Amino acid sequence: MPDKKQTGTFCYPKGGWQIVHKKFVSQGPKFIIYFYFLLLFVFSLLQACVTTEDHDLLKRDINNLQKESLSVKNDLNTLKEKTSGVAKEDSFNVVRLSQAEIQSHLSNVSKDIQILSGRFDENKYFTETALKNSAAEIELIKSQIANLEGQIKDIKEKLSALESRTAQEETIQKQEKDIEEESQLQEDQAAKSLTANDKEARYTAAYNTFVGKKYKAARKMFEDFLKDFPKDELTDNAQFWIAETYYWEDDFENAILSYETLIKKFPKSPKTPGALLKQGLSFIEIGDKKTGQIILEQLIDRFPDSREAKLAEKNLEKNTENIRVNTEKKKK
Predict the structure, then answer these.
(1) Is position 3 within any domain?
(2) 235 is in which domain, residue-wise?
(3) Predicted confidence (pLDDT) per residue in 190-243, tens digit
(4) Which among 102, 190, 191, 309 is least surrounded, fewest beta carbons within 10 Å?
C-alpha cells in the first residue's frame, strides 16, 4: 500500500500527480499545456489541505512544467521554421525542376519546329519544281498531240485519196473483166456454133484466139477440141498449143507437165522437138538449169537436123560461156 498523507479533509496518494504528469507528457505538447491548467485548477482546490512541503514540491513541478512547455514551444517553433524552410526549398526545387523541364521541352519543341520548317521549305521547293516540270511536260505533250493530230489528218487524207484511187482501179478492172468475159462468151458461142464435124474450123478458131494472146480462152477451146477429137491428126498440135498457153503465161510448171504429155503420147509428132525445146527452157526458167541442159541435149541427140536442135545448141553454148565467165570471175 502506498503511503498516504493526511491533508485536512482531502488526501491523495504520494507521488500520484507525478504519474498523471508522465501520462500527459507522453501525449505531446498540447496535453502538457492542458495538464498545466488542470494542475492550477486542482492546486487552487487543494490549497487548503496540502502541506507546505507538498506545496513547494508542487510549485517546483509547475515551474519545471512551464520550462518544459516553453522548451516544447521553442522546439515546435524551430521545427516549424525548419519544416517551413524545407517545404519552401522543396517547392523551389520543384519549381526549378519544372522550369528546367519546361525549358528543355521548349528547346526540343523549337528544334522540332525548325526541322519541320526546313522540311516544309524543302517540300515546298520540290513541289514548286515538280509543278513547273509538270507544266513543261504538259506543254510538250500538248505539242506532241497536236503534231500527231496533224499527222493523223494527213494520213486520213492520203488514205481517202488511196481509197478513191483504189475504187477507181477496181471499177476499171471490173470493166476490163466484164469486157473479157463478154469476149470470152462471144468466142464460146462462136465455137459452139461450129458443128462437131467442123473440126478444122474449131481448131482454127482456137489457134486464132491463141495468136490474139487470149491464152486462157484458147486453152479452153483446145481442151474442148481434145475431148471431142481425142484421136484426130490435129490432137498432138492441140496438146502443144495447150502447153504453149501455160508457157506464155509464165506458168512454167504446168507448161513442163503439158509438154511432157505431148512427148509421151506423141513421140513422133512434128511438135515433139518444139515440146522438148520449150520444156528444157522451162526448167531453166524455174532455176533447174541442169535438168534443162539434159533435155536440150536429148533434143539434139534425137532430132539433130531440126531447127529446134540448132536453137538448143546455141542455148547450151550461151550457158557454157556464162558458166566459164563466172568461173574465171571466181578465180580472180
Answers:
(1) no
(2) 194-331
(3) 555 545 568 899 999 999 999 999 999 999 999 999 999 998 999 999 999 999
(4) 102
Within-domain flag for 64: no
Q: Extract the C-alpha cell encoding 279.
A: 520444156
Query: Alpha-carbon distance 107 to 173, whole Å?
Result: 94
Summarised one tens digit per residue, pLDDT across range 72-107 is 678 777 766 666 555 556 666 766 677 677 778 777
Convert the pLDDT of each residue in 35-81 to its tens digit.
Answer: 566 666 655 555 545 456 666 777 787 787 778 767 767 877 776 66
Q: What's the CA gap between 133 and 248, in Å, rounded? A: 69
* 69: in domain: no
Per the structure, how many domains does the chain have?
Answer: 1
Radius of gyration, CA atoms only, the chain: 74
% of the chain exceeding 90 in pLDDT: 34
Q: How many CB atoms lie within 10 A of CB 50?
A: 19
The answer to whether position 136 is within a domain reads: no
Angle at 162 between CA 158 and CA 166, to 5 degrees: 175
CATH number at residue 225: 1.25.40.10
Residue 11 has pLDDT above 50, yes or no: no
**CA separation for the pair 279, 277 (Å, rounded):** 5
